[in-house]
Amino acid sequence: MEALFSSLLGNVDWYEIWLATLDTLLMLGGSLLFTIILGLPLGVLLFLSGPRQLFENGPLYAALSFVVNVLRSLPFIILLIVMIPFTVLITGTSLGVAGAIPPLVVGAAPFFARLVETALREVDRGIIEATQAMGATTRQIIFSALLPEARPGIIAAITVTAITLVSYTAMAGVVGAGGLGDLAIRFGYQRFQTDVMVVTVVLLLVLVQLLQSLGDRLVTHFSRK
Question: What tens digit of pLDDT does each residue of 146-203 get?
C-alpha cells in the first residue's frame, strides 16, 4: 500500500505542501480581515446613501457605485499586475504573502461591500422606522437595528467573499505570491507534475468546503427562528 502511495504521489514534497497551505491560510486570513474592515463601512455607506434610504445622496451614491463597479469588473489577474508598484510602496515587496494581501483586499472589498448593501436592503424597513420613532441616533440605528438584523446576510456575505478569496490566492501564485496556487503553477503546470497539481486542487476544495460549512452553520445559528 505504501509503495502504491509513493508511486502515485512520488513528486509530492509534503513539507512544501504544508508551507504552501500555511501561506494560503495567511493570505486568506489577512486579506479577509482587511476586506471586512474596509468593505463593511463601504457597504453601509452605499446602503444609507442609496435611493429612498435614510441619508439619500445621489451624487455620493453614484460616485461610490462607480468606484465599486470599476474595481469589481477588473479581472483579478490584471489587478495583480497593475497594483505591483502600489503594493511595493506599502509593503516593500510584490512577492510572498505580504505582496499578495493589498491586491486581494482591493479586489475583494468592493465585492463584499455590494453583498453587505444587499444584506442591508433585506432588513424590514419597519424596524428602521420604529428605531427612528424612538429617537435613536444614526449610530444607534446602524449598530442597534441595521447590522444586528442583517447579521445572517452579512455572515453569508463573508462566507462567499472568503471562498472568492481562496480562488484569488490561487491566481496570485502567477506573480509569485506563494501558497497552493503558486505550488500548482510551478510544479504541477510548469514541471508537468500531475500528482502535485491533484494534491493542491484537493486541498483547495477541502478548504472551500470547510469555509462553506462553517458559514452555513453560523448563518443558521444567528438566523431568527
Answer: 888 899 999 999 999 999 999 898 888 777 777 888 787 777 666 667 778 888 889 9
**Contact present, 121 and 61 (Cβ < 8 Å):** no
| Three-state SS at 223 | coil
Three cell numbers, residue 215: 458559514
CB atoms within 10 A of CB 76: 17
**218 neighbors 209 (Cβ within 8 angstroms):** no
C-alpha cell at 115: 453583498
Q: What is the C-alpha radius of gyration for the chain, rounded to an integer number of angstroms?
A: 21
Is 138 within 8 Å of 131 (Cβ atoms)? no
Give me the CATH topology for the region 14-222: MetI-like fold (1.10.3720)
CA nearest 151: which of 130, 123, 126, 178? 123
Provide the whole-model pTM: 0.89
Handedness of CA 67, 43, 169, 163 (dihedral sign): negative
Place of cell 496570485: 172
